Structures are given as C-alpha cells and as structure tokens.
Amino acid sequence: MEWLGKAKVEFTHSPSPRAIKEKDGTDTDLLKICEATTPPCHLNPLLFNGHVQTMWTATKPSGPPVFYRRRLFDADHATYKGSYAVDFAVEPFEENDPSLPHRTVYYTEAEDKSLGSDDKKPMVVVLHGLSGGSHEIYLRHTIAPLLGKGGWEVCVVNSRGCAGSKITSGVLYNARATWDVRQTIKWLRQKFPNRPLFGLGFSLGANMMTNYCAEEGENCVLKAAVVCSNPFNLDCTSKLMQNTLIGRELYLRVMGASMKNLVTTHKKELKEYTNLDLEAIEKVIYLHDFDREVQCPIWGYPTESAYYRDASSCDSVLSIRIPFLAVNAKDDPIALDAALPYQEFRQNPNTILLTTSLGGHLCWFEWGGSRWLAKPVCNFLNYMASKVDFDSVKPTKEAQVDEVPVPFDPMRRRLHVPQM
C-alpha cells in the first residue's frame, strides 16, 4: 500500500496518557486527541520514499503567501548579548524591503509602540529549521491554515543571522539555543496577557523547542507544543549520515554549504565579534566540519560530538510537563528513525510521538503539492485551543521516583549557563 502513497500512521505513547478535560466537561486524554486530529496520510505515490520526498523540496514551489512585520529584540540576558528578529504574521501589504525576505518589512516606530492587546486569540510561537527563517515554504504551508479566518496569531523567532537579520555580537545560535524564544515568550506574556500561547518547531527548531519545553518544565507557560521532523539525537543522526554516501555527500554537504553561506553573509561581523578562523570555515564541506569550526570554539565544546550530545533533545522528552506532540516520518533521511527516542516517549504521559512510514524531512507532499503535515499540526492546535479546558493542561509537577543514590536529571547539561 505504501507504494500507492498510503503511509502507515503510528503513535508511541505512555501506557497512561495524560488525562485532559474538555470545556464541556468531557474527559479525554492526550492520545485520544492526537488520534482524533490526525487524518489518514495519503501522499503523492510518485514521491515514493523519504529521499524523493525530501529532494522534491528543491523544486521550490511558491507555497502559500504569508506576510510579516519584523520586530528587533535586544537580548535581556548578559550571557546572550546581541539582538535577534521576530516576524509577526500580518494582513497583506504593498510595502517592500529588499534587505529582508519577500513579503517581510519592519514595523514602523509607531506600530512597534502600539503592539499589545487584551484579546484572547490563540497564538503560536514558531522556530524554523537549520539556516532558514519565517519565509521557508514548509513553515508557511503549516501555519497558513491558522491565519486569517483561522483565528490565530503567529510569530516566528528567527535564529540570529538568519532571514536577513543582522549579527550584533559574538553570540550566535546552536541546537540548544533556547534563550531568544524564552525572551520572546516572556515578552508576549506581557504584551498579550490573555492570549493562550503554543509552540511549534521544525527540524533544528524542533530540537530547540523540545529543549525549551523541557528546560521550563513545570513552569512552562505554553498550553501545548508541536515539533516536526526533530532529529532528537544529533550525535546519532550525524554519525549515521556520515556513514552513507547519500547522507554524507548530499545532506551533510548541502547543510554544510547553507551554514557556510550564513558565515559568508556575515563575514564582516564575525571578524569583528568573534575569533573564528574564517579561512578554515571557507574550506568546510560537511555540516559536522562546520560545527567543529564554528560551534565548538564559540561555545567551548572540545568536539562536535560533545556539542551534539549536549544539545540533543532526546533526554529532554522526559522533562516535558505540557501536552506535547512530535511528528516524524520513519523514512526521514535527516531526522533518522534510529535516532527517535521511542522509549522516552513511552515514559512520559505528557508526550506523544506520531510517526508515518512515508514523508521525508519536513515534506509529506500530497498529490497536487500540498503538505499533509499541516493537517495534524493545525488540527491538534485548533483542538487544544478551542475545545480543551486550559486548567487541565497546566504543567504537571515533577514525577516522584523511587529513592536512588543519585537521581537522574534529564536536563543536567554539560554547558553551564549562569542564571540571571
């Protein structure tokens, strides 16, 4: 059946999924909600495996138009000095800024000062993939149904230097860069105190969002979160891709080139704010080489493998205390099935792992070019925002464990960041 594009859908979950109450008093649970909001997965039969699905992205279809206005933030944490850009989805406009991605302009000073509302619209905070931004096609495909008549507000936190944003310090971003999304969510809580907030992450941004939810733990202010094509175990995925010709010479090479392009774009600033060996970076071919030359010296990791192990979000799954849905394709050639933390999802009743047998990396192309991914993501978010009693999805307390000499802490990181 898979050769006809009909993918198998499976859910990995705790034996006792988190209990949730709906607004009308009906008792349900997280698994039932995920099952009810996930439609059958019928993909384009001509794109018959993960490689073909993923490569089809290179055809660069236009995707749904989404318009953004950008706001710049100065970091409020001394360790993460610098600035970053957040793009807010807005109604269509005629302006154009050639320095920014298509359909993106800055807020005017007056508009920026007027930001804020007491409305109760649901709002989702989005994190993009490796070197992308709010303009990415997969991202626009997913959020488009939520906008306009969908009734949602959406903002995208662009990683530093991405999507036409400037680098203003030696602090860049990495796979566990949760500081900018944390500041953004705090700001949103102040400016829009009545809006229920949700999280959505893609690929590397999915890894960041997973880490953020886990780091916040029982203090997380998000009502729920969804992550798509999360690689979870970065060391595992990197090594497995290095060991195959297509993984190394296609995916790791392309991702390495995209990150090198970022360095080229910001070469002047990097020379001013960092001590990176720019000549060595120019010789980089693969993503793991890039991480060795950039992430390791910036963050103090001795090797790229040490960085991958520390930044991975597979253990983070155990510390999530809000309703959390992960969507992955088992034939994903980047976020590999072998790296998915199935056991961890079975341990945490707050989490569900939805896997499809087909779909590739952030693709799930259906016949006609639409993406199946948008359906379960938007259905889940709409259900959580409109039908669920928010009191029943407050972060749960840390689970009590049997007494052991040294308790396991999933969020004990090797890279220590001082708290402010």
TrEMBL record:
It catalyses: an aliphatic alcohol + acetyl-CoA = an acetyl ester + CoA. The active site is at 203 (charge relay system), 332 (charge relay system), 361 (charge relay system). This is alcohol O-acetyltransferase. GO terms for biological process: medium-chain fatty acid biosynthetic process; medium-chain fatty acid catabolic process. The keyword Nucleus does not apply. Gene3D superfamilies: alpha/beta hydrolase. Belongs to the AB hydrolase superfamily. AB hydrolase 4 family. Residues 122-232 form the AB hydrolase-1 domain. Keywords: Hydrolase, Transferase. Pfam families: Abhydrolase_1. GO terms for molecular function: acetylesterase activity; alcohol O-acetyltransferase activity; monoacylglycerol lipase activity. The keyword Transport does not apply. It is an enzyme of class 2 (transferase). Displays enzymatic activity both for medium-chain fatty acid (MCFA) ethyl ester synthesis and hydrolysis (esterase activity). MCFA are toxic for yeast and this enzyme could thus be involved in their detoxification by esterification. It comes from Cordyceps militaris (strain CM01). Its EC number is 2.3.1.84.
